[in-house]
Amino acid sequence: MFDVAIVGGGIGGTMLGAILARHGVRVLLLEGSGHPRFAIGESTVPETTFGLRVLARRYDVPELEHLATHGAVRRHVSSNCGIKRNFSFIYHREGESTRPTECTQYPTWGPPLGPDSHYLRQDVDAYMFHVAVSYGVTAHTHTLVDDVKFDDDGVTLVTREKGTFQASYLVDAGGMRAVLPERLGLRQEPPYRTRSRTIFTHMVNVRPFDTVAPPRQQHKMPSPFSQGTLHHLFPGGWFWVIPFDNHADSTSELCSVGVNLDLDRYPRQEGVSAEDEFWQHVRRFPSVARQFEQARSVRPYVATDRTQFSSRSVVGDRWCLLPHASDFIDPLFSSGLAVTVMSLNALSHRLIDAVRRDDFGTARFEYLEHWIKRMFRFYDDLVSCSYLAFGDFELWNAWVRVWTLTTLYGTNSQNQAAVTYEKSRDPASFDALETPPYRGLQGVDNPWVERMFNRSRDAMLAYSKGELTKDQAVARIFEALRDSELSPAVWGTLDPENRCPAKSFTLWPLTKLLLWGRFRSPGHVRGAYLSGGARMVGKEAVQVYAGELRDGASQARRTLRDMWLDWNHDWTRQAPARRSSPPAAPIAPVVPGASGSPEATGEGIRMPK
Fold first, then answer.
1. Out of 12, 138, 345, 396, which residue is the most buried by the measure of CB atoms under 10 Å away?
2. Model pTM?
3. Over the range 375-411, which residues count as b (16 or more CB within 10 Å of their CB) and which as e?
């Protein structure tokens, strides 16, 4: 008998499994395939990386922080992952090369709090799977769940390969084809305005866009296009370009690419293969075609029907869906991992407490029902209005600023909790993330952010209905931005000629941002955001740099030694076994004291803690 069963061994299910097992919960993980395996959801955003730091520190699972920045991913997880120093958006007109002034950029955070990463998911997911196992999760791969049966005491899972298992609670982390939505009839017609479909693959020989773009002196973006997630925008759609080979230490030659299309403007073409349709769209735009002129795919092209799906409920009697098993909007803005990390933060302590108290009442999990659904509604607004903005660069140049500000305040919600924790070392500091104004993502729980966003969204919708001209919609968006007083004075967000208002999150621009937040920002910002953290940033900067120096020197010493000697003592310095007891400071309001994990049967994987 297990406390919690998780169906789905991807990144969400394994992170949850590791957290729960770390706190003594008996966890069963069932995965229908194996590792390594292909998966998409490859680009992180600052709110995701800061959220991973929160998870690692709140739940005492340091391996989660290894996923938080590119440097940590490179050192601890995989050198096949790419670096993400920016979000770049290039506007295209059919039959024309891109114009130098028709691009925008938003930076990710520099070291030590960044930069973000491009996850080669087969490596990252395999890493997290083995982390979960090492904490005591009982895992079965290549095990398909054929049936799920609930009763008053829990759930019985009937598998095709390993027989039956019982648990007190079930979390479905199975993605779009998850078990519970099918078994319980949860799927519904998506209540979303966004209507898009996707074609994607992995390629080699994709040229860095900097080699085909106008010179930097003309486009004036501060960061190379090839060192971030590149978005090629055109009326009714966008391409993603996510390179894994874009830094000096990369051992990959791969690049993830895809095109997302408005389903009504570009319906599926009968008799046209996914590959042919992809290249049809590439050839429409000369600058995109030059970037891909030597590229070739290394895996089959995948074409989806409508990308959006939805479920009537997220939680029920002794079950819960992780976000990607519940709903999905669109790959734009890489929202999937962000919502997953938010939900894991809220779900984990509730499940730990439910196990301690043997109380799995549905009311305990209603918070997730509300906030997961609310975040999908927000991202639907954000993405659907973005598709409208793809029709005109001036409109996009205005609308993208709304996203940059919501991202700033959402990220700083996570950072404020981390700053408080660093001062007190009390995991209860993270409880603030479930109180106003920090709930959810993208700052939507802040009334000033919400008001600014809603006014801007309404302007876009009025434009789509013909009630406003493009110029009027742009003017209303800038008016909403100005009235909110959310834009840092050091950025220049209110200047439409400034196409990269944030410029940089390296140490000096970050210092200026923190000083604005502490001394010059309006009261509704100063009391809740950007009110500290300089000491934490400085401390972590020293630690990160020292770690890089230490790792480099250690590798050089080992290489020199191995040139001359056969024997070494490296095996005596291997990492210690996982701790088998809960952390000294338990997750509030969890009662200390936990039962051990059961041994696996059959071919299940079970390692000692």
1. 12
2. 0.91
3. bbebbbbbbbbbbbbbbbbebbbbbbbbbbbbbbbbb
